[in-house]
Design goal:
217 residues; six-stranded antiparallel sheet; five-stranded antiparallel sheet; 11 strands; 27% helix; 40% strand
Length: 217
């Protein structure tokens, strides 16, 4: 809380009251990003790449046949690593990994799509990110809650210090950002048991600073 004269060095019965308001929401995810890896190894990089390409094509075909639009399937750069075997590092193999992301709009299909991906060659770096299809909508709702919180705090403080205040603040500062105030959840613990393929919780926090004009009662 902050009180100060409206004009420097000039006595007045007006001041200001500054408060922070916080709004918090927990929302169930309605969009999922399934991250998949395909890893192969061979005594030559080309053999490993060819093997991975074959699996990748089979995987993507199976996802499209299931009904996933091609625009929701994305492949990333190939990763090639050398793998030395034995104490003398004489035996050399190459490990090739392709990364695939699949956007799933119908969460009820996650378990089936996950199983389909495993059956068709996904074998590494498998994880799920729980997202929101319209994060801005929920951030706006959190901002409204933050505004109400600021007004409630201002009312409580004004009453405690026996002052009146204008409920319309003369200055509002948004201290949070929709880009950095949404905490998405992830899971990397699936494995063959598929132990938890349910929707995750997304946490949204908004914060503002509101400055109100006060008048002594």
């Amino acid at each position: 809380m902050q009180f100060r004269n409206g004009k420097m060095y000039i006595p007045t019965d007006k001041g200001s009251l500054s408060v922070n308001g916080v709004g918090y929401l927990e929302v169930e995810s309605d969009l999922i990003r399934l991250n998949l890896g395909i890893t192969s190894n061979s005594d030559s990089a080309e053999k490993a790449k060819d093997k991975n390409l074959e699996i990748l094509e089979r995987l993507i075909s199976s996802l499209i046949d299931y009904g996933i639009p091609e625009k929701d399937i994305n492949t990333k750069d190939i990763l090639v690593n050398r793998n030395y075997i034995g104490c003398d590092n004489q035996n050399l193999s190459f490990v090739v990994t392709n990364l695939v992301t699949v956007m799933i709009h119908n969460i009820s299909n996650l378990r089936d799509i996950y199983s389909l991906a495993i059956e068709n060659g996904a074998n590494d770096n498998i994880s799920v990110d729980f997202l929101l299809s319209n994060p801005g909508y929920y951030y706006s709702k959190a901002l409204k809650k933050a505004s109400k919180d600021a007004l409630n705090k201002a009312s409580l403080l004004a009453s405690s210090f026996n002052v009146r205040f204008n409920p319309a603040p003369f200055k509002i500062i948004e201290k949070s950002s929709s880009l950095y105030s949404i905490a998405y959840s992830s899971s990397k613990s699936f494995g063959a048991s598929q132990q938890d393929l349910s929707s995750g919780i997304v946490k949204i926090t908004a914060e503002i600073e509101a400055i109100f004009t006060t008048i002594l009662c």
